[in-house]
Each structure stands twice: as C-alpha cells, then as structure tokens.
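Support request from a user on the community tier.

User writes: "When I paste my structure tokens into the form, the page sometimes reloads and wipes my input. The last time it worked, I copied everything first. Here is what I submitted, just in case something in the input itself triggers the reload:"
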C-alpha cells in the first residue's frame, strides 16, 4: 500500500474551534483568575489611594474649583439664553408688526418734499472776518425737531400707527451738492408706505409741523426762511428695502440657531460630583480591570490552545488520519473507563460528531463488517498494532476475534518499540492500526504504515479511540 507522503497539512477551522471549545473549563478558570488578580489589585490600590487624606484634600480643592467654574458657566449660559429668547421675541414682534417689514419692496409708495432754507448770511469781500454761516445749524435743527419723539408720537396718533414703526417710514436728510462737500440749503423729507393715502397723510402732517418749529429755531439759532420748492408722490421699486427685509429675516434665523446651540451647551453641562466617602469609583475601576483581566485570560488560553493545535503532532481525529495517510477509517470508539463527560462536554462532542454511537457492541460489529469488506478473501490473519495503549489494543483484538470468522486476529502491540510485535508482521496478511486521539502521533503512524508497506503487507484500515 502507498501512503500519502505528499500530504500538505491544512488547518481545519472546525476542528480548531472545537479544540478551543473543549478547553472551556481552562478558559473560564484563566479568565476568573486573571480577573480576580487585576480587579483585586486595582481595587486594593484604589482603596489605599482614596483613603489617603492628602488625596482627599486635593480632590476637595479640585471639586470646589470645578464647581465654581461650572456655576459661572451655568449662570453665563442661562443669561445668554434669556437674552436670546428676549431678542427672538422682539424680532418676531418686529417682523409681524413693523409696517416697513410688511411692505412689498416692488410696489412701494414714496411721498417726497424738498424745503429750501435761506439765512441772512452773505460773503463780505475784502473782509478778514466773515459772518458765521448758520445754514447748516438751521437745517440740522429742523432735522432733529422733525425726528423728535414727541412730534413722531403726535403724527402716529393721527395715522393710527405705533411711533417706532412710523419712524422707520420717515427719512429726513440734508441736501448737498454733487461732490457732497457743500450744503445746498435743502431739507429733504421722504415717506415710504404701502398705501398712497397713508404716505401722503404722513408727509402732510410733517409739513404742517414746520411752522411751529420755525418760530422756535428762529428765536434760538437765527433769522431764516423756509419754503417748499418741490413735492412728489409715486410708486417705485426699492431694492435696498428688499435687502433690509431679507437681513432682518435672516437675523431671526441666526438668533434661533444661536439659541439652539446654547440650549445644547446647557444640556451638556455636567455638575462636578462632590467628593464622597463612598468608593464607587474604585469599585467601577476594579470591575473594569476585572473584565479586562477576564478577557485577557481567556484570550491567552485560546491563543496557546490554537498554537498547540497547530504545532502538535498528536492525533486529533480519525478524519485527519484518513485524509493524511489515505487509510480507511474502520470506526471510532470511546475509551471505556474514562471519566464521564459533563453535559457541556457531551454536547460539544455531539456537535463535533464524536461518540454518536455509545453501544460498543454495535460499533465493534460495524468495525468487523468493514474489515470483512475491505480485507477480501485473501486475508486470513490480521495483526492488531498501533500507538494506542496496550489495554486498548488487547480490547480490540479480543472483540474482533469473536466477530471475524475465518480470520486469525493477532495482537502485535506497538511496531515502533515492541520487537515481538514487529516479528509477527511477516506472518500476517493484513494490519489493523489502532490509534488514540491525544496520545498517538502522526509521525509514529507514518512510520507504522511505512514499515507495513516495506513488508509488502496490506493496511486494512484504522480504528480510532476518541
């Protein structure tokens, strides 16, 4: 028989997984031990550290500083939120109630009047000292008076509009020349409104108030005359107003966004925990390190099991013997007298496909039938050899003797270290290998097959104890 001497070992992930799972007790024990070591060490060292008075004093000082910083930030954040909420309310009211903000900038009525102010100022040629030109002062006085709160309030009562919103509709400017360097003695009054009649009404009320201010300004500033030189009323498009309305709407959005940010900031603020005599932190740290230790312990065992599985030469399963050496697997048996497996180990064995037939009589009967089928009629004597213990070899030889009629079953022992068994090899027609998982070595099995083939004997198959 030619055995498979070109076999390249491959790692069976399923077998590797079950090899690890069968070590669950060791994994659990290592995890518990390392968890107790790391968790206990961290707990004891943490307890000693927390019990140190200097550490307690320092922790109290840090807590007071952190609490002071927290309270300052909390108060500041709450004030900012309150201010933002007030600004948002005011902005919403302004956007809803302001006449200017609700006018369509593409259909706006503008009432305009230009007033000319003349003083008695004259340039005196050839004179070093000139009279003071009070024109600018007079124009500014009219501008201030017409924008005065009392005057605006009076007009707002006449037109049924709040004074703050009316003031937005009125623009009073002092005219200058084209180079904007010299006054042209004009006082320009503009009124913007969404309705023609209202714009005209506001302008008329403003012009009606000029005589009363003229008397006052003339008595305080100087003699002058003021007369209307131009008046107009018409609809127009005001793109500047459209831009202003857009900015005011965006301002409300900006305020709301800022408020949301501050509320999130307030929510995320955590008050520092006071220094306590409890050792909750120490316990949490100990538990954390215990978990780390448990995981590390389990990982270490799994790692070494995997390394041992890959590096080990011991037989793990009958399936591997079959694929590695191309020998027929006659059957698998459990080692009688071994310690009974627990429920978990038994469940893992069933999952792996081991020990599915617990009736040894049935299993030996199947082995005998396989031998009869594979041996044929030319094999009259069988030599039982292998790396399993002497007791197991004798048991197989004894069980097969009564089940193989017409065949002589000979006990041969271990061909590698039993000279008597080796001497029996030429006398037999076929060889049955009996190997034991966890004890027999693949290298020894290879030598056994090699010796059998060298004697031109047939390896009928192998029986594996798992």
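"...and here is what came back when it finally went through:"
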């Amino acid at each position: 028989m030619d055995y498979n001497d070109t076999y390249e070992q491959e790692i069976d992930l399923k077998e590797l997984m079950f090899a690890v799972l069968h070590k669950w007790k060791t994994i659990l024990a290592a995890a518990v031990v390392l968890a107790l070591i790391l968790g206990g060490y961290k707990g004891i060292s943490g307890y000693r550290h927390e019990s140190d008075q200097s550490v307690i004093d320092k922790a109290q000082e840090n807590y007071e500083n952190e609490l002071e910083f927290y309270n300052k930030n909390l108060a500041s954040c709450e004030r900012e939120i309150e201010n933002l909420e007030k600004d948002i309310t005011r902005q919403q009211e302004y956007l809803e109630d302001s006449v200017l903000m609700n006018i369509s900038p593409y259909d706006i009525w503008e009432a305009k009047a230009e007033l000319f102010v003349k003083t008695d100022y004259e340039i005196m040629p050839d004179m070093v000292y000139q009279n003071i030109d009070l024109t600018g002062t007079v124009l500014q006085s009219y501008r201030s008076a017409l924008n005065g709160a009392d005057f605006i309030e009076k007009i707002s009562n006449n037109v049924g509009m709040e004074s703050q919103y009316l003031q937005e509709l009125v623009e009073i400017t002092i005219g200058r020349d084209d180079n904007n360097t010299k006054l042209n003695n004009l006082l320009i009054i503009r009124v913007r409104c969404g309705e023609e009649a209202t714009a005209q009404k506001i302008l008329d009320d403003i012009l009606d108030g000029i005589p009363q201010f003229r008397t006052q300004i003339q008595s305080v500033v100087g003699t002058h005359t003021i007369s209307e030189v131009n008046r107009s009323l018409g609809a127009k498009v005001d793109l500047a107003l459209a831009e202003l309305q857009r900015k005011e709407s965006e301002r409300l959005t900006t305020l709301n966004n800022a408020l949301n940010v501050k509320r999130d900031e307030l929510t995320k603020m955590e008050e520092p925990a006071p220094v306590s005599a409890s050792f909750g932190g120490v316990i949490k740290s100990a538990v954390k390190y215990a978990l780390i230790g448990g995981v590390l312990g389990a990982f270490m065992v799994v790692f070494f099991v995997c390394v041992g599985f890959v590096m080990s030469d011991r037989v793990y399963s009958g399936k591997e013997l079959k694929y590695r050496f191309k020998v027929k697997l006659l059957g698998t048996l459990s080692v009688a007298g071994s310690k009974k497996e627990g429920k978990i180990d038994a469940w893992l064995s069933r999952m792996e496909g081991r020990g599915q037939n617990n009736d040894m009589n049935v299993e030996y009967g199947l082995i005998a039938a396989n031998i009869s089928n594979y041996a044929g009629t030319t094999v009259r004597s069988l030599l039982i050899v292998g790396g399993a213990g002497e007791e197991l070899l004798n048991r197989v030889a004894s069980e097969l003797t009564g089940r193989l009629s017409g065949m002589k079953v000979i006990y041969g022992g271990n061909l590698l270290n039993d000279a008597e068994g080796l001497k029996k090899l030429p006398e037999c027609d076929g060889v049955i290998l009996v190997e034991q998982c966890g004890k027999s070595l693949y290298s020894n099995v290879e030598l056994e097959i090699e010796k059998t083939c060298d004697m031109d004997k047939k390896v009928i198959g192998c029986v594996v104890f798992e």
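Agent notes: The reload is a front-end session timeout and is unrelated to the input. The first helix runs from residue 13 to 21. Residues 10-99+238-312 form one domain. Escalated to web team.
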